[in-house]
Amino acid sequence: MRSLLDIPAPAKINLFLHITGRRADGYHLMQSVFVLLDLCDTLHIETRADGRISRADIGSSTQGSDPLPDNDLCVRAARLLQATTGCTQGAHIQLEKRIPTQAGLGGGSSDAASTLLALNKLWRTRLSRQELTAIGLQLGADVPFFLLGDNAWVEGIGEQLTAIDYPPTPFMLLKPPVGLSTIQIFKDPNLKRDTKPATIAGFAEIENEHKHLFGRNDLQPVAETHCPDIRHCVDLLKAYQPSARMTGSGSTVFAPWFLNHDLQAIPSNWYHLRCMSLKNHPLKHWAD
User: What is the reported pLDDT for 59?
Assistant: First the structure.
C-alpha cells in the first residue's frame, strides 16, 4: 500500500470548557467535553522512498518543493513519527481545508492525528493507540482526543480522556472573519482559572434534559474583549437557542439546532454551517 486517499479529519466542539487551575510549568488544567462533528478536512497521503516529508494544499500546483513551515502540524506529526520509530520512508501530504482556522474547532490537531493514523498504516510502524497518543501529546493538547476515537470527557491539560456516549445532535456554527490565538487567550491576566471541578454525573444530568448546555466556557469573556464580534455571534444565536456559546478558544460560536430553518440576518462574510455530531471518529479502528 503506497497511498491513502480521502482521509477524514473531523472538527470538534467543546460543549463546555472550565479552567480549574494551573500547573507550576504554566499549563492550564481544564475540564471539558469534546464532541466530534461531521465537518471534516480531507488528506491524501502517498509514501516517498527518499525519506522526505512534503506537503501541499489539494488543488495547489506545488509538489512540496517549497520550504515547509515549522508550525505545520501534519509535517511535525510525520517527522515525529519518523523520529520515534526510525522509519526511513517519507510521505507527501495533501490537505484540503474545510475547518476554519483559529476557530476553536481543533482543525490543526485533527489533521495531525489523522496524519499519524494514516502513516502508521502506510509505513507499517504498527504503533498502538497509546503509543500514538504519546506522540500526539507532544504536538498539542487536543491531538490525543482525535486519536481516542470517541467523544470524551477531558481533564488535565487535555491528556486525561474518558470516552462517553453522546447522542447525534445537530449544531449551528457561526464564526466572524477574525480568528483568535489560543496563546493570547491563555496569557490574559483576566482569565478565570479557579472554576470548581465538575463531575461526569453532573454533566450527564443536565445534558439529558436537552434544555440547555452544561457549564460555560471560561475563555469566552476574555475572548470577547479581544474579538467583540464573538458577542455579536452569541447574541444572534441566542435569539434561537439560549445556550449558545463559544467553543475552545474561539472564535466560533455554536448552539444545538433543532430548528428547520437556517440563520437569518448574518453578515455575508461570516462563516456559518449546520452540522451533526458524530458518535465516533471515522478512523477509530485504524489503531486497533
Answer: 63
